[in-house]
Every structure is written in structure tokens, then in C-alpha cells.
Amino acid sequence: MAKLRAPVALRRGVFWAAAGILGLVALGAGLTELPDPVAWQARADRWLPEGPDTGRLEQTFRPARDGLAGLDLRVNPASGSTVRTLTVRLLAEADGRELASARATVGLPAGTAPIRLRFEPQPGSAGRVYRLVVTADGGPLPPGTLAGTAEDAYPEGRLMLDGAPATGSLYFRAYYRPTLGRLGAAAAGGLKDVPALTLAAVLWLLPGLAASALLGWPDTPDLTGRVGAASSLSLAFWPLAYYWAGFLGLPAFETGLGVGAGLAGAALLRRRPILWPRRAVEPGPAVLLAAILGLTLLVRLYPLSDLALTPWVDGPHHALIVRKIFETDRIPDSYAPEVDVAAFYHFGFHVHAAFLARLTGADPATAAGLTGQLLTAWSAVLAYWLVREWSASALAGLVGAGLAGLVLTFPGYFLSWSRFSLAAGLDLLPAVFLAGRDSARSNRAAAALGLLLAGLAVTHYRLLAVAGLFVAVLAASTLRPAAPGAWGRIPLALAGFGPAVPWLAAAAGRFGVPAVGASLAGAIGPEPFPWDLVVRWPDGPVYLLALGTIVIGLGRRRADALALLVTLLVVGFLANALPIPTPLPGIIDGVTVASSLWVGALVPAGTAVVRVLGMVPGPFKRPSAAGLVGALVLVVGCSQAGRQLATVNPDLILVHPADLPALAWVQANTPADARFLINVFGWRPGLYAGSDAGFWLPAVTGRTTLVPTLLYGNLPPDDLAQRNRIARALLNGPADWGRLIPELRTLGLNYVFIGRRGGPIAASDLLGRPEFEPVYHRDGVWVFALRPP
Question: Per CATH, is 34-177 categorized as 2.60.40?
């Protein structure tokens, strides 16, 4: 028998070695261009050249990353009265080598279009100078051909017209392609943070482990089930602990640790194993899950190294709330002085970020991004747990983990929006679904369900409604009223939910009731459902596969299929995804729904993939098919890792690295009560957001601004109207400063911040006015003081 084992072991080793090599090849082949963190200029307030006799336009730039592999420009096809062809060439400044060229036609009745240059990655490109050269056939460049700005918005390079230096900068964005070596070096460099993160993870997980053991839910977990349930219970525990500690006047962090230690002690006294599993771990799926998690961590954390601060408009208010929790060690009662409104925003995610900041020493704004990415990476483990438990198939669980971690657009794309509260709430849904299913027959599951829903209530209001609807429909379909103890489980669930009720009541008065009233009054109009987020590759086919499985489940009278379909229909109706107009627009927005569908698709899609593979004749019919399916999931995941690395939309990046010293200068050199005018853009009807790093002033420096994060939408109506009036005047430009300056003084705005990305306010608008004094200028970032009258 021993002689027979060696060949089997050898074949298995060769198989997995081949799978690993194939995965590395797929990973390398799937790597694509990522935006360079420094080499970009996004201001496009005019078309260049402005004169009629320019024969040659040039822009130099200096990338920050090795592997320069692409460049984007923005061309105006409608420029000129005749059809002309532009030639764009990229040259290496050191030796004049041409790296790439592209041609574009102008003089056509069309809108703005990009010119994309893609070429082989250039080794050693970091810090080197490159030159863009634009010419036209048969004569000078047509006026107004290329997007740019008259400001010196990219001081690291130079704009030249016919060889002579010119004022202004071209709109452009450079890209680089990372190598496997760079990814490996980044992973190795991150090992220095492992001890601090491990300590934080252990202390954070302890209350959840103890609660899972004391509740006895799940009833027969393996290690994955125990850790999955414990992480979900910790997601619920810590926000509630912080809330009640603050309510009682206790330090929240220390109180939470004390309660967690007490729960662990109680579990040990009752001889409840905290971590030791009640059933053996399947080694094959566990190893594959660890590989999927490791790769998911890499693709989630690497993009953070290319960001000065997290993208788009949600990041500033998340970071502000995290900083307030971190500094006061409690849930804030208001967001003053930065935003003078009573606290109303769900705070679950922010507690976890403040917890991480306290234990690792990270800045709260940095901790917010890191926590969000760790949560979206952990989604892969929770997806495995959900799909495996619901389908009783470890293979389907691996498919679910691969979908959540490496294949589907979400949750990875949440980084582009900084929608980390939504990510935290979605991480609670697998446990809510499983506890909701088990609560039909288990008192322990009912108690766990109540606690999980309480955590969801303070993490994301809309997801609480969605999860509650699913659980209610599932319970109505499966609960047997005559069964012993059936009605007694409802009080258990309500008792578990009780800790969230006081906060929900306060938030309803401050936010929920006004929001519903505005919707009923027609102040919030219906928005088109973002179907592009649903039908894109590869999400669309996965959702179709899941929908087909749900329909088949309905035919088989499965209660879970009915509950999922009813939930989708109700939520889709409220989000304006159905042909019938919704009577409550804005209550559940379409973006939230579209970006959350992946959770509902995990179980039906995972089971469908395994069933389809089981129909394939040949190797998938053999007993060894489990390893083959696992290897297939891993290789497919590796092939999609490059797409996950490129998840950040560069157009949504508001902060350039050059902005960070300016933010630090503001914090060190301006009064604590300084108020800033910043660049803005129209975000939604009746709301404006910052268009550059000035939007981060409240979160990073504690200074307030014209639009101090999106939380300003809850300011008193007169105050909100005045701020919106100023923002509208800036956008409708050119600004009438004679009219605006008195309004600025009325609001107490006494500084102006112009970030690297810019907006409607240009430094040249203020330099000639006696009311403004430049007090900071470095690397394209300006700060002006508004002189007293």
C-alpha cells in the first residue's frame, strides 16, 4: 500500500504545482495599467492652443512609478473648421526615443474624446522626464484642440508652444503597469505591519468569538464557521459597545475591551470552546480559501499605496466621523465645529476604523481607507461561509469566495467611491441570512439574529430594511407556528435588537423622517437606475446565472428563492429599477442597490457553477473533481486580479500627493476656527461637493469650509441655501467677487484653499485682488487669506 501512495502523492503535488504556475501566469497576463499617483493634471477649463499659429504643442512630465505604459489626453474633435489629423507622440527626454504615437481626427461634429496611448512598460521610468509632442498635418494646430488650463497646475513639467515655454498645463494622465516582482515587493513590505494588525484583529475578534460560544451559534461550526460568525458578531458588537459606553459616560474603547474580556471569561467558565471547532476543517477547501483570501488582500491593499487619500466625495465625511470617535473615545453627539449639525449618520464602520487607528497608530483618515479595504477583502471568507452553509457544498463556497474577492466588480469597486459604510453593512448580511434561516428552529440563532440586526441598524440603515424584508419573508415561508417555542423566538430576537433602538429613534427624528417627508413632498426626484453597474462584464452573466437559479428554485417551491425574489422586487421598485414609477424616490438609491446585488447572487451563482461543472463529462465526474474545481476557481481568480488592482477610477481622485503638505500647513498655521472657501462642483440636486483636496479640510485639519463634507446637507435651511448660492455663483462664473466677498464674510469664510486638482476658483482670479493675500504656494497648491474689511 505504501508503494501506491507515493505515486498518488506525487501526482497530487505535480497537479497543484502546475495549478500554481498556471495561476501565476494568469496573474501576470492579467496585469493592466494603473494610474500613476503623481503624473496627472486634471484641470480642463479651456482648449489649447488658444492662438491660431501654433505648429507644435509639447508637455513634459515625470512619472513616479516604474513601468510607464500609457497616457491619456483629451481632444476636442469639433475644433477647427476643416477636418485635420493630429499626431501625438511620446518621447523619452533623455535620448529622444519615440515610445508611442497616435493619430486623431478633428474638425468633426462630435464631443470631447480621449486619445489613449498604450505601449510596452518602460523599466526605470520613475523620476525620468518624458515629452508629449502634438502636431497637425498640413499646417498649424487648429485652435482649441486639446484640453488644458491656463494655470501652472503641473509644476513638475512644462508646457511649450513651438519650443517656447508657455503659461498653462495640458490635461493628461499617465499610467504604469506593475510587475509580479513589484506586487511581491509590496506584499513583503506590508509584513512590517502584520504584528500591529494581528494584535488589532485578535482584540477586535475576541468579543465575537465569546458571543458565538456563549450563544452556541452556529451550533456545529468548523474553524471557518466559527471565525465567520465571530467576525460578524464583532462587527455588530463594537459599534453598540461604543454607543452605550458613551451614553453611560464611560471611555468606549476601554469599556469594549473590558466587556469583550468579560464575555470570554464567561465562556471559559461555562466551558464553551471559544475557537476550537466542533467539526474538523476540510484541509483542501481551507487551503484554497486561504489562497483566495491572500490574493484578495493583495488586490485590495495595493491600490491604497497609489492614493494620497481615498477617492471621491464619501471619504471626507467618513474620515471626519472616524476622527471624532478616535479623539473623543465615544460616538459624537454632533459633528460641530466642522459641521454644526446633530449626529445622524450610521457609525458602525467608523467605530472599527477608530479602533484600528487606536491600536496601530494610523492617522484616522488612513485608518478609514485601510479598514474599508480589509472589510471588502474579508467579504471573500464570509461569502465562502454563506454559500457553503446554504448549499452544503464547500466547492460552491469556493466559487462564492472567488466571485466576491476576485471576479465581481463589487465589493472591490467601493474604494473608488469610498463607500465603506456600505461595505461594512454588506459584510453583516451573510450572518444575518444564516441566522435568519436558523432562527426558525433555534432560540440561539434567534438571539444572534437580533444582535446582528442591531449591529446592522447602526452600520447602514437601508441595508437593515433590506435584510429585515428578506428575513421576514423567509420566516413567513418556513416558520411553523405550531412548532414548540416558535413564538418565543420573536422576543429573543427583539431583545437582541434592543440596544440599537435608542439610536434608531434619534436618527429617525434627525434624518429618517425628514428624508421621507422630502421624498413624499417631491423634493427628491426619481433617478434612473444604474443598469450599467449590473450588466457590465463579468457581473452581468453572473447575475443572469443567479436569476436563472432563483427561477428554478421557485419552480421547486424553495422558500429561500421566494424570499430573495420578493426582496429584489420590492427593493428594485423603490430604487426605480422597475417599469412602475416608485412613489418614494431617494429612499433607497439605485447605486446602493446595484452595488449590493453581488451578495444576493452568491448562493444561486455558486451552486449553479458547481452544478454546471458537474454536468461536464470527463474529469469533473471523478472523485478528484473537488481539487479540479478548486484549482479552476484559483486560476480564474488570478486572471481577474489585474482588473481588481485597477479598480480605482482615476477621474474620482480628488487629492494629489502635493496636497498633503498643504493640508499639514493649514493645520499648523491657521487658527482652529478658520473657515475656508473651496472649489466645488454640483454633486446632486441641491447639494455640492468639493472638487479638490479642500473637501478634506474638515476631516484632516479640523477646519470648516463652504461645503464641509456631504453632511452639510443637514444644516438649517437658510444656512444651506446661502452656501449653495455661493457654490452656484462660483460654478456659473466668472465669479463676481464684489458681490461674493460680503457673503463670504457673512459666513465667516476667511481663507481660500485651491488644491492641485482645482475647480472654478483659480489662483489667477485672486492674485490681482487686494482683498486676498497669498499665504501658501507650493507644487501647484495655493492658500489665500481674505483680508479684513
Answer: no
